[in-house]
Design a protein that fits this description.
Strand content of chain A: under 5%
Largest sheet of chain A: 3 strands, antiparallel
Distance between the termini of chain B: 47 Å
Number of strands of chain A: 3
Radius of gyration of chain B: 25 Å
Shape of chain A: globular
Helix content of chain A: 55-70%
CATH architecture of the largest domain in chain B: 3-Layer(aba) Sandwich
Number of helices of chain A: 13
Helix content of chain B: 25-40%
Order of helices and strands of chain A: EEHHHHHHHHHHHHHE
Structural class of chain B: alpha/beta
CATH class of the largest domain in chain B: Alpha Beta
Shape of chain B: globular
Distance between the termini of chain A: 26 Å
Number of helices of chain B: 18
Oligomer: heterodimer
Chain lengths: ~375, ~500
């Protein structure tokens, strides 16, 4: 109703005023610089908290760096953590691009794990099935299960305009409960809450598998899922920026009414994007099950699906930027285990998300300190 | 009445918006106990003037006196303190709260404990005094639009306003509700309150107002003229004016095949009230049909597949597109210059390229199977950027950084380069500067010469006169008349419901 003032002077303090001005053009270097700045501020805030509880922030951060990237061995472990993070980060980026707030990547991850396990454990394929049939079948099943878990909120949103934040969040709990049902009852091994170990044909190949010919690979647990994740990042980038469908997604995300005016079917795209988003998270679940855990059990994810939300934002929803950001977070999770199982790394992650969201203001506005009275 | 004290006096108000002089040294005088109509076309500056009085806009020049005292109105709160309250076209109510809660919203009293029942009673009493039938305990979302308007009035009365400004209050009301509203306003005037009634409907204004001020293009053309002595024809002329802006080179040309055929079209507006009631119209190839009156946006949306009609048929080039998705209309060769450039016509954060390919991205040469040829898209955008003289650093510039005129050029480039068979153009020159307006008008005439059928909707009657081969007037969802010559008085009367001849009901 009222015209938004372009600038609003704040109260003068000691002869200086802070002016907040709307930015007209955003130079290309600014977004990455602001993101980097946000991370640094987050580390600084984290350091203050660490200092207050009696820790040595510098030593802590140095330790985190060493524990995550200090040697080939730990770097390989970092990549293992990064693999599912890349995929869920992509899942979130894709959905957020269309302003679909899919915070159900966690549940879709679990469903992917369940779907992939079902191929092995339900006896659809015999245990002697060769890996080149078994693994693609697991991938397909995992992605389908994830896609189904994404399709439900997508359909509800498209048909009945049900808020997808609520439905995706709630479906997370259902997915976990569903997994529990299977590991407690159907596929329980000797009364334990886990399935039996998968046959080798259902394991994604790891670097260590070639240790016999390349001694440097000995003990490296990085698995083929990383390749899948990086390829997926490329594919999603291509879809978003070089395909007709991606154009539709970007248009809907930026202005749904313009998309409607351009003749684009928003309901159909809502379901499809939620399905692909779910399929990516499902693939993360499959890759974790077949590449790391090798059996179905509970607590296979330390909140990957939620970390994916942070990664997507930090990467500014750019699929290619998701990869390095996910590696950073993989390192943080890995190193966190060495310092403290849950507290500090989660704390830093949380602070990063906060500083990051706060830093968005700097992209839209220019904050300047000017002498009071000196107009403009 | 003439000797009643002056409640508000505005002198020399100037208010400028980018590219528009909305109020050009406007004087306005309001007496106590009168209903004063502010009459003018859309965009004449009526709402701007009243927004200044309500403390929403700060004028660049001019003074305001309330009951003889000069005042500075920096916010709506200031205005309310001086007894000036405005009710906007879009209501500002909280749907999930009750009538009383909405009335109390933002007041210092009650402080913490609500004791709603006590306030319910006060609100009910206030309503009774002015004939406003509302249940204080009802939730706002349960109310009809007319009842919601009463809540807005109650809010103002509760705050003790002496001057109530109502912006197009009858636009959302059913006929019965209009009568109720008029009764309430008269009751308020009888208690010495003043009412400013913004409208462009002559009949209404004549029946409810004591005095009338007419604005045209930001200037006063009649100041405080008594309604009793005015004739509708005079008011229509004052409102519409008679000057033609441009001398356009329009060659006579015989119309061709029917391109757009509409029969008995009925549709509702966003409030669920009927906007079109059995409208029939044919537009032929190579012909510009101007549409004046209300309900044009709904009409355009029905043609382009953005709004469902409840009855009737729409055919484009012989193909039935009634209630088909928007894509069907696009594929039939319908181009649409929408009324709302920023919210409908463009995607603000996407580049000029992405905005230009909005309608053509899914066809060759841009589409290769499922892939989008970015290089071809860029080439096309660069070509059109030159041809339509879009001033921007590059085709990668986001649309939101463009000025209104440049954004309109992007939209025109997109819609006209598709070589449409039917062009639906809504306010194609609104907010543009004079040079740009002429450019757009020439483009429209070029489309006509190329054999496109054009349905032109504009607030500027001069523009409609200058461009159109035929002009149809919609009033209350029906075509009430058609003209082929420049006759502002007749059209003004038709637009405001002042003239409706039986033979005019039958349309082309």
């Amino acid at each position: 109703m009222t015209a938004q003032p372009a600038s609003s002077p704040a109260r003068p303090r000691g002869g200086w005023t802070i002016r907040v001005e709307r930015r007209l053009a955003v130079p290309g270097w600014l977004p990455p610089a602001v993101s980097l700045g946000a991370i640094l501020v987050a580390l600084l805030l984290g350091a203050i908290v660490l200092g207050f509880v009696g820790g040595d922030p510098l030593a802590t951060y140095a330790h985190i760096g060493r524990a995550a990237f200090g040697s080939w061995g730990v770097f390989s472990d970092t990549m293992v953590k990064a693999t599912p993070l890349i995929l869920v980060g992509l899942a979130c980026s894709l959905a957020f691009r269309m302003r679909l707030w899919n915070i159900g990547a966690e549940g879709q991850f679990y469903m992917g794990a369940l779907g992939a396990s079902a191929v092995v454990l339900s006896g659809i394929l015999p245990e002697t099935t060769p890996a080149w049939i078994m693994l693609p079948a697991m991938m397909l099943a995992g992605m389908l299960a994830g896609a189904l878990w994404g399709a439900i909120p997508g359909w509800l949103k498209a048909r009945l305009n049900v808020n997808e934040i609520i439905t995706t969040l709630m479906l997370n709990y259902i997915a976990v409960a569903l997994i529990n049902f299977f590991i407690f009852a159907v596929w329980s091994e000797a009364g334990f809450q886990m399935s039996k170990v998968f046959p080798k044909s259902a394991w994604l190949p790891r670097l260590a598998d070639w240790a016999a010919s390349v001694p440097a690979f000995r003990g490296l647990t990085t698995h083929f899922g990383l390749v899948l994740a990086v390829v997926a990042a490329g594919v999603i980038w291509y879809v978003l920026y070089r395909s007709l469908w991606g154009y539709e997604i970007r248009l809907i995300g930026d202005n749904p009414r313009a998309a409607q005016y351009a003749g684009i079917n928003i309901s159909r795209n809502t379901v499809l994007v939620m399905m692909l988003s779910g399929a990516l998270a499902g693939l993360a679940g499959m890759s974790e099950i077949a590449g790391v855990v090798h059996r179905l059990q509970s607590a296979i994810s330390p909140g990957y699906g939620f970390t994916g939300i942070i990664i997507a934002w930090l990467a500014k929803l750019n699929p290619l930027a998701v990869v390095p950001v996910a590696i950073l977070f993989g390192g943080l999770i890995l190193a966190g285990r060495e310092i403290q199982p849950a507290g500090v790394p989660r704390l830093i992650q949380g602070i990063i998300l906060f500083t990051l969201i706060a830093s968005e203001v700097l992209l839209r506005y220019r904050v300047r300190l000017v002498r009071a009275g000196a107009e403009e | 009445m003439a000797d009643a004290p002056i409640a508000v006096e505005m002198r020399g108000i100037v208010k400028r918006f980018p590219g528009v002089l909305a109020n050009d040294h406007v004087d306005f005088e309001l007496r106590a106990g009168e209903i004063h109509a502010l009459l003018g076309e859309n965009g004449a500056g009526k709402s701007t003037l009243m927004n200044v009085l309500a403390g929403l806009y700060k004028p660049e020049a001019g003074t305001i006196q309330v009951r003889g005292q000069p005042v500075a109105l920096n916010s709506p709160r200031d205005a309310i303190r001086h007894g000036l309250g405005m009710i906007h076209q879009h209501f500002t109510l909280v749907p999930s709260q009750t009538v009383t809660e909405n009335v109390l919203l933002g007041l210092d009293e009650p402080r913490f404990f609500m004791r709603l029942s006590q306030y319910d009673q006060r609100v009910a009493e206030l309503g009774q005094r002015f004939g406003l039938k509302v249940t204080p305990q009802a939730k706002v979302w349960q109310l009809t639009v007319g009842e919601q308007q009463r809540v807005e009035i109650l809010k103002m009365l509760y705050r003790g306003v002496q001057v109530l400004i109502m912006d197009e209050p009858t636009a959302v009301l059913a006929p019965q509700e209009v009568e109720d509203l008029c009764r309430t306003l008269r009751a308020m005037a009888a208690e010495g309150k003043s009412i400013v009634f913004i409208s462009h409907k002559l009949n209404e204004v004549m029946s409810v107002a004591d005095r009338i001020t007419v604005l045209r293009q930001g200037k006063v053309t009649a100041a405080g003229q008594p309604a009793a002595g005015s004739s509708k024809a005079d008011l229509a002329r004052l409102m519409v004016g008679r000057t033609v802006l441009f001398d356009l080179d329009k060659q006579p040309q015989p119309p061709g095949e029917p391109m757009l055929e509409m029969e008995g079209l009925q549709a509702d507006n966003n409030k669920g009230l009927p906007a079109l009631r059995g409208l029939s119209l044919t537009v032929r190839a190579g012909e510009i049909v101007g549409v004046a009156g209300n309900g044009q946006s709904e009409l355009a949306e029905v043609i382009t597949g953005l709004r469902k009609c409840t009855a009737g048929r729409v055919r484009v080039g012989g193909v039935d597109v009634t209630n088909q998705p928007a894509r069907a209309a696009i594929q039939c060769g319908v181009a649409h210059i929408p009324e709302d450039r920023t919210h409908v016509g463009s995607a603000p954060n996407l580049s000029i390229t992405d905005n230009i390919i909005m309608k053509s991205y899914n066809r060759p040469p841009l589409a290769h199977g499922a892939a989008l040829d970015q290089r071809a898209a860029r080439r096309q955008a660069e070509l059109l950027k030159m041809e339509y003289q879009v001033a921007a650093p590059s085709v990668e510039t986001p649309a939101r950084l463009l000025s209104g005129g440049n954004l309109q050029r992007v939209i025109l480039a997109r819609e006209l380069s598709a070589k449409p068979r039917l062009l639906v153009a809504i306010q194609p020159t609104r907010g543009l500067d004079v040079g740009a307006i002429e450019g757009v008008q020439k483009l429209l005439l070029a489309q006509r010469a190329a054999g496109a059928a054009i349905l032109l909707v504009s607030e500027e009657l001069e523009e409609i006169f200058a461009l159109s081969d035929r002009i149809v007037v919609i009033y209350e969802g029906e075509i009430v008349g058609e003209l082929t010559e420049h006759d502002p008085v007749t059209i003004g009367l038709m637009m405001t419901g002042g003239s409706r001849t039986p033979e005019a009901r039958r349309s082309a």
